[in-house]
Please model this.
Amino acid sequence: MRSKISIIGAGSVGATCAQRIAEKGYADVVLVDIIPGLPQGKALDMMESAPVLGFDSHIVGTNGYEETVGSDVVIVTSGLARKPGMTRDELLLANAKIITEVTRNAVKYSPDGIILVVTNPVDTMTYLVLNASSFPPSRVFGLSGVLDSARLSSFIAAELGVSVADVFTCVIGEHGKNMMIIPRLCTVGSIPITRLLQPEAIDRLVARTVNGGAEIVDLLKTGSAFYAPSAAVAQMAEAVVLDKKQVLPCAVYLQREYGIKDTVISVPVKLGKAGVEEIIELELTAGEKKQLTGSAEAVRELIKTVKPDSKGDGVTR
Ligand code: APR
Model:
């Protein structure tokens, strides 16, 4: 039997994600958006591609939540992009409001589901979804490290002229300027990149990865990245519904792991049917631990902007 995945927000990331999931055929998809006709039109268009592509998944578009009932996974991509003149904090507050409302609606119809958060700033939004949903932290996580490490892997493969299949990269921490890349744990065919690339080249590729989202925004002029983000989200959703027990870096709520409490950052986790089935603690050097703690502190500051009562003593549930 096919699983059921609902995607809230039928914009660039949400709709492309729906297409990727439907084409794989393991789940039916419900696409929700506030704009009348938008999710319906995109869903119909995708359904009409099914005979050509040969998939049997159903895709439905709607402006309500009734059709999302009993979803195994709810993917949240709804939100606003920054408008001219809008500060980062204003965007944060606007998206926080949207995310909270979307979560309450989604949870009403899928109380046993898993929520995958994509809306940025994703670490803070994941924290808010966790609060608004009252779900255990194992059932709420965000897109972060899978995208960041895919970007770095693609840059390393191009630099060395090797297949992306041979590249493994380790990116953890905040999904943003405080993300943390650990070159000694990034490998090509099991060889650390520190033995394959000069330090200047590593620094250049790391800087490009940290700036990965902005590089695409600058090129597109309107809108932001969606091909790589939607591919990353689809991989995470697939790991859950197919119970793959795949180890992927995700934005998760930490409750003492890595010595960090009450915030959300990306670390490697095992993803399966129950969501985050295990948080994997990498062995970090003292310097790396300090950097990760700094990254977590940066997210905590953002959380305080939208949730001033957050004192670092646990989410309110
Ligand atoms: N309920 C449902 N949908 C909503 C709501 C809401 N309350 N508010 C906004 N939306 C919808 C918009 O109508 C729009 O169709 O969310 C969609 C967002 O789509 P885009 O603007 O195309 O944004 P996209 O590029 O898909 O990015 C979405 O993912 O990667 C992140 O930073 C990115 O936060 C952004 C999110």
User: Anything to note?
Assistant: The domain at 145-306 is CATH 3.90.110.10 (L-2-Hydroxyisocaproate Dehydrogenase; Chain A, domain 2).
